Amino acid sequence: MIKQSMQMLTLAAGLAVGLTAQAAQFGIGTSGQGTATYGIGSAIASVVANDTGDQYVVQPYGGTGKIVPLVETGRVDFSLANILEVTTAYKGVGPFKDRPNPNLRVVAVVYPFEVGLFVKKDSPAQTVNDIKGLRISSEYSGQRIIGTLVNAVLANANLSMADMQAVPVANIVGNADDFAAGKVDVGFFAVGAGKVSEVDASVGGIRFLAVNRDADAEKRMQAVVPQSYVTMTKPRADLAGVVAETSLMAYDYLLYAGAHVSDDAIERLLAAMIKNRDALASNYPSLGGMDPQTMHKKLAIPYHPGAEKFYRAQGLWKN
Hints:
The protein has helices at residues 2-14, 36-52, 64-72, 83-91, 144-156, 172-180, 194-203, 215-224, 263-275, 277-283, 305-313, and strands at residues 25-30, 55-60, 78-82, 104-120, 135-139, 165-169, 187-190, 206-208, 229-233, 246-258. The chain is of the alpha/beta class. Strands 1, 2, 3, 4, 7, 8, 9 and 10 form an eight-stranded mixed beta sheet that branches. The protein has a two-stranded parallel sheet with strand order 5-6. α5 (144-156) runs antiparallel to α8 (215-224), α6 packs parallel to α7 and α9 (263-275) crosses α11.
C-alpha cells in the first residue's frame, strides 16, 4: 500500500508541467440529465476546467448513440460510452452496421461501469432468474445499444426478451420514467446514476437484482456483450437500490474524442483528471473507481495520439 501510494505521488508530481498551450473550448456530449454520462461529463467539465483553464461545455442528447456521428464529424469534441458501443461504432457493426466511424479515438478507460435490472423494493423477485414473464422495457429505438445490454443481463439467467412482456421505449431515461409510472415491472440503469435515485424516491424504494456468477452464466452474458464481466457491488450511501452486496454486470466505460482534437488538449485533460481524482469523485462518486494504472488497456480500437503520448510519458502505456 505504501509503495502504491508513493507511485501515485511520483506520478502526480511528474505530470506534464509543460502542457500550457493556449486554452480552448470543448464540447462533451452526454445523455440527458440524470444519466451516468451526464454526471461524469459534468464532473470532468467542472474539475478539469478549473485545472487546465480550458472550457468544457456539457451538451446533452437523447442517447450516447446519437452523439457518435457528431464526434465523428467534429461537431462535438468528447463523449462517453461503454466499450461495446464505441467499438461497434468505430467498426461499423451491430447497431452501426455499414456506418463506421473511423475518426473516433479513445482517451481513457474511465472506470468499470456497473449496470443492472431493478424492481421495486417489495417485489418478490430477488435475482434476474425470478423475472420471467414480467413487463420490461424493450427495443430502445433511439439507443439500440441499451437493448443489447439488457439482453445480455437476461441471457445471464438464460432468458430472452421472448420470455418477458416487452414494452417498447425510446431510450434509457424513458425506461426509468416508465418504471416510475408503473408501466413496467423491471427497470434497467447504471448503478449510481442520478436518475436511479430519482426513481428510488418516487416509488418508495428499488432493489437491483443479482446476476448469476457461475462460468456458464457469465459466458451466456458475454455471448451478447463480449466485453462484459460479473462484479460484486457493495452498498454505499450514493448507490440507490444496492441494498446488499450484489452481483451485477460490468464493463469498461470510455472517454473518447474525435481525431480533430489536438494532442495538447488531450494531454492537458488527462493530466488534470489524474491530478484531481479526489475532486472528480467528490463531484460524481463512481469516479472514485478511476485508476491511473488502468486508464490505458489494450483495446480493439485506437487511442488518440495525444493519449498515447501521455500514457507513454507516464509509464502507463500497456505494450
